[in-house]
Amino acid sequence: MRFPFSGPDPEDIGSNPTNNPTFAEILEARLTRRAALQGVSATAAMGLVGSLLSHATAAEGDPVSTLTFAEVKHGYDKTHHVPPGYKADIVIRWGDPLTAGGPAFDPQNQTGDKQLRQFGYNNDMIAYFPLPYGSNNSDNGILAVNHEYTNTALMFPGFKDDDEAQSKLTKEQVDVELAAHGVSLIEVRKENGTWRVVPNSPYNRAIRLSNTRIQLTGPAAGDARLKTSTDPEGRFVIGTINNCAGGWTPWGTYLTAEENFHQYFSGKAEGAAYTRYGITGKPAYPAWAKYYDRFDVTKEPNEAMKFGWIVEIDPYNPNSMPKKRTALGRFKHENASVVVAPNGQVVVYGGDDERFDYIYKFVSKGRYNPNNREANLDLLDEGTLYVAKFDANGKVVWLPLVFGTSRLTPENGFNSQADVVIEARRAADLLGATKMDRPEDVDINPVNGRVYALLTKNDRRTPDQVDAANQRHNNLWGHIIEMIPPGGSGKNADHTALVYDWKVFIRAGNPKQRSHGAKYGPGVTENGWFANPDNVEFDNQGRMWIATDGFPDFGVADGVWACDVSGKAAAQTRCFFQCPSGAELCGPRFTPDNKTLFVAVQHPGDDKDSTFDNPSTRWPDFQEGMPPRPAVVAITKIDGGIVGS
Ligand code: FEO
Ligand code: CA
Ligand code: CA
Ligand code: CA
Fold it and tell me: Can you tell me which atom of ligand 1 is nearest the CA of 244?
């Protein structure tokens, strides 16, 4: 995510304070001072020799990708771009009516009550649930869409794009902001090649920070640290916050990830459960605590413990209560990608998106039952949470975060599994997990069974902190790691294993700039390189579709880049979609037939000094007086074929 103003950057605070060994230390003998001075570690340099040689630009005889679209050219302008032969239709925008009787968007007259019945702000993750349940219907389904955060100066008239804007909000405007955070469920249907929202569908639902009651389940439910004045039992919370990416389960539920929850809490409190998460009295949303005590940790200290979880929602049952699954740990969850292991145990992969934080997986105790949906609904309440340690010998080891084992004992302040999950970051610190370059999406390729971790960037890594898994200091570009579980490809991959192989799949950046140390497959073109990988999606052929967040720092709009993952054109990324000015691209998700790719254009117009009154773009409406509006877009081939073909 990018932030609404230049104030406290959530990645600046709560950063990992530990001294877990880096591979620079492990590999000290191999790390020459000269290599470090040249900007790459020795390990990286060794890898670069081969990759730089293979970086010749596309020419006759270069390997040919299975992707056939003509590349979108790198650029930066007011609107979006798709390749020739494709179209991009707007499905729903911020403020559009969502639930029955939802009012039309009136940007000059926003209220919290109206926003509760409208599509929220800053759409992020998208999941698609076919209708009816159990079908593969690719023309009618329920979209689950996250609304990650709000941009004050772009949402309301009269503000400058500065640090002061949020603190000046009225209570009504704060109510709009609260009601614009959460998740929307929307029934959509494709008719004559175009996707439309089904108005007043019983599946349409607004799950919001303002008013949706959510149950806390798993080891932390009922713990003293979750008890508040409005919830003396410590088992419920109103709402979900900063919903970034997520995932979906084979039993047809949606998982939404609470990421930068700390930035909404004012005040200071003692203890790593606050400080290790960045709750340090410098909120990005200072106005909220003025009107609501629950966002002031000096008044309601435990409210902040009710956020930072994975939330499970049943889109097929509009009356179901969402559940925060505390067994999956409390951290700044980027996502929650689910796969069933060969033995039926359910595995959930996720990243903790902060500089120098970790990659996790959860393995359920129980097994998935494909014949009994009900039997699966609470599988995520019991199991083992692990954190990843990447070794220089090409192995990744999964370390269990289990109370009473290793250093997770009363001597270190852990008295129960509740303590372990509430302070998952500190537990992982003690076990010596590998500090990564901001883990974003960690997702499973259903064809080859491999797991891909997208590391978006880390401009704080110093030369002595480079390691085998994070090979560049001042990593402005990000990279992608490929993890290879034992057992074989596809459904044979054993995601319960405690040791996998791993390797670097892509080092992003410009392959023509030697100082970037980039690595792609051979034949990548001048439009095929990218920076700052964030979300990832796989098509039915196992090809990778990467969404970016941050490429505008290099003068290029964010968008989608796609590539094969095997064969001669593996990692030869190609540009497929370009965002409008100021936006990042989120939530790429295919329909089961791969004939539609849904994408979420987040924070359009979020350029420097761009405001509601004077925005850098008025995408997607381009109407005077209408601010830019985050929107879900359906990309299809005009001939009705498979996207990417
Ligand atoms: Fe919300 Fe890590 O992106
Ligand atoms: Ca992002
Ligand atoms: Ca993200
Ligand atoms: Ca994904």
Answer: 1
- pLDDT of 26-73, one tens digit each? 333 233 333 333 333 434 433 333 333 333 334 445 689 999 999 999
Q: Determine phi and psi for 87, rounding to 5 degrees.
A: -135, 155
pTM: 0.92
3-state secondary structure of 44: helix
Residue range 372-386, pLDDT digits in tens:
999 999 999 999 999
Name beta bridge partners: 495. none
Strand segments, DSSP code E, in 527-630 are 533-538, 544-548, 559-563, 574-578, 584-590, 596-602
The dihedrals phi and psi of 515, each to the nearest 5 degrees, come to -65, -20
Instruction: Report d(CA 513, CA 532) in Å as an integer.
Output: 16
CB atoms within 10 A of CB 367: 14
Identify the nearest ligand to the CA of 603 by its number. Answer: 2
Mean pLDDT computed over 169-189: 98
Q: What pLDDT sits at residue 163?
A: 85
Instruction: Verify whether ligand 1 is closer than 6 Å to residue 71 (CB atom).
Output: no
Q: Six-digit token pair at 458?
A: 């880390």
**Residues 509, 476 contacting (CB under 8 angstroms):** yes
Show the CA angle centred on residue 86, arms to residues 556 and 79, nearest 5°. Answer: 40
361 token code pair:
């997986």
Contact 295, 303 (CB under 8 A): yes
Could you tell me if the CB of 1 is within 6 A of ligand 1?
Answer: yes
Q: Which residue, judged by its Cα, is nearest atom 3 of ligand 1?
A: 1
- 586 CA from centroid of ligand 3 (Å): 7
- Token readout for 573 is 């990324």
User: What does the block give as tokens for 480?
Assistant: 């992608």
Residues 348, 1, 437, CA angle at the centre, nearest 5°? 60
**Distance between CA atoms of residues 197 and 140, nearest Å:** 10
Residues constituting the chain: 645
Nearest ligand to the CA atom of 536: 4
352 in contact with ligand 1, CB cutoff 6 A: no
If you measure from the C-alpha of residue 84 to the centroid of ligand 2, how many angstroms do you get, rounded to a whole number? Answer: 27
State how far the Cα of 250 lies from the Cα of 373, in Å rounded to an integer. Answer: 9
d(CA 399, CA 361): 10
Closest atom of ligand 1 to CA, residue 353:
2
User: Is there a contact between 500 and 486 (Cβ–Cβ < 8 Å)?
Assistant: yes
CA of 209 to the centre of ligand 4 (A): 24
| Ligand 1 lined by 304 (C-beta under 6 Å) | no
Radius of gyration (C-alpha) of the chain in whole angstroms: 23
Residue 516 in tokens: 């970037």
Q: How far is the C-alpha of 77 from the C-alpha of 350, rounded, in Å? A: 33
Name which of 332, 290, 275, 288 is nearest 307 in CA terms. 332
